[in-house]
Amino acid sequence: MTLTNDHDDLRIIGRADINDLDAILAIPLCDPDEAEHHVAASRDTIFSWDYSMARPGLHKLYEKAKTGQWNATTDIDWSVDVDVEAVMTKDLEVLGAGVDKTLYVGTPVERWDDRQWLEFGIHGRNWMLSQFLHGEQGALLCTSKIVDTVPWYDAKMYASTQVMDEARHVEVFGRYLREKLGGEFQINTHLRMLLDDIIVDGRWDMTYLGMQIMVEGLALAAFGFLHQITAEPLLRQVLRYVMSDEARHVAFGVLSLREVYEQMTDAEIKDRQEFAFEAAVRMRDRFMQQEVWERMGVDTREVLPIVLNDPTRQMFQSMLFSKIVPNCKKLGLLERNDAWLRRRFEDLGVIQFEDWENTGDEYLRFELGNEVATAP
Ligand SMILES: [Fe+2]
Ligand SMILES: [Fe+2]
């Protein structure tokens, strides 16, 4: 992997080298006992007196959203019994441990027996679903903010449907974690920084870029991947329902921002490129699963240098960008300003997805009743 070293990156993410582990580890983990997290933010609330559904793409999405509603209480079969150990044993057969075990020589992980690897898998699953849960709450808050701040009537109408969608997603992941896995992990510290940054920014298009393009783009890929590998029927059902909404949400971001970005100056676009890059690094950092290693009693300083360069991890991690990169390309963000974002995505090892189908074109395939196109 090429390292990034320039002042731009230092200014944006607070470190010159995106792989600087000391800088990554200097950010404390979130307190698992914290009950509330307050973010001070100001924003303009905009009324629109133009009540025409002027944008056919958004109008179509709004109609799809109305017929695509489902009820988390009655449409999901919550009576399914989840034997966590049996499920993870089966899933790990398909997935492997998610790391290349041979690389961890000289660390406590080297001596782990099958039981400990299973425990690592179970905590890892719980952690992943917990981050989905917290991310869904972030989406709920961001989308309600978009209803306020976006100047277009048709976008306000669509966003209002997304608020309900996100409430349902918080409901299903929360219920699954509570009833089937016995509780949740705290929010990952890098994910919380990212959500804070998105919420603090008062520019309405930044909310879209951070949430609909970056966070939800990654979520859509992650849900598809987990849906493909897990044998657990309840989780598969939950993910399938959530994906049917999530594809619309990402399409909402692509359709809305395309119009706006076409009219922006290079300097304005540079701000957006930097924001997208920063979000990508935060999400990459999140996948080091610091909270899981700690739960297993492993000193993160010992393992993270290996995790960062573990090809198995890099493969999973890069796949999570399979929706983000083509969507950024569709928005014109890769090439503007001498291909600034293309070069950053090259540094992160994710540019290979640029010609995959963008979600603005593919979202209808995720509707309930269709076979889903999942991650490769
Ligand atoms: Fe969601
Ligand atoms: Fe969403």
Question: What do these coordinates show?
Answer:
The chain is mostly helical and 376 residues long. The chain has 16 helices and no strands. It is 63% helix and 0% strand. Helix 4 crosses helix 5. The longest helix is centred in the middle third of the chain and has 36 residues. It is globular. It starts with 6 loop residues before the first helix and ends in a 14-residue tail after the last helix. The N terminus is likely disordered.
What is the topology?
Elements: H1 7-13, H2 21-25, H3 56-67, H4 84-95, H5 114-149, H6 153-180, H7 189-200, H8 204-229, H9 233-262, H10 266-286, H11 290-295, H12 300-309, H13 311-319, H14 324-330, H15 336-347, H16 359-362
Helix pairs in contact: 1-10, 3-6, 3-9, 4-5, 5-6, 5-7, 5-8, 6-9, 7-8, 7-10, 8-9, 8-10, 10-15
Residues 139, 166, 216, 246, 249 line the site of one fe (ii) ion.
How many domain modules? 1
Distinct ligands, ions and cofactors found in the model: fe (ii) ion
Major β-sheet annotation: none
Task: Let me know the number of strands.
Answer: 0
Q: Would you give the CATH topology?
A: Ferritin
- C-alpha Rg (nearest Å): 20 Å
The SSE string, one letter per element, is HHHHHHHHHHHHHHHH
How many helices? 16
From the helix content, strand content and strand pairing, which structural class follows?
mainly alpha
In summary, what is this structure?
The protein has 376 residues and is mostly helical. It is built from 16 helices and no strands. Residues 1-5 have low confidence and may be disordered.
Summary keywords:
binds fe (ii) ion, 376 residues, Ferritin, mainly alpha
